[in-house]
Prior knowledge:
Layout: H1 6-24, H2 28-35, H3 39-46, H4 56-66
Helix pairs in contact: 2-3, 2-4
Amino acid sequence: MRFSSDLDLYNTISQNIKYYRKQRGITQIQLAEEAKISISYLSKIEAAGLNKSLSISVLNQIANALDVDISMFFNQYIKKEE
């Protein structure tokens, strides 16, 4: 898969994290606790327009907490729900 820009990549990741969190029916606070990251950091990750890089380690922690494969965060074609 290819992304036209870093912003497109980060937006895809943030939307997918939010999507899987909502699918699991947990709050940002619960996910942050399970992933062992701060709620403010998770909030920034899920925010539209995220423009800073994320470590693979943090993505792995979030994927493990959501019980999804880390590669799912890069899928550009997941149906989004608001």
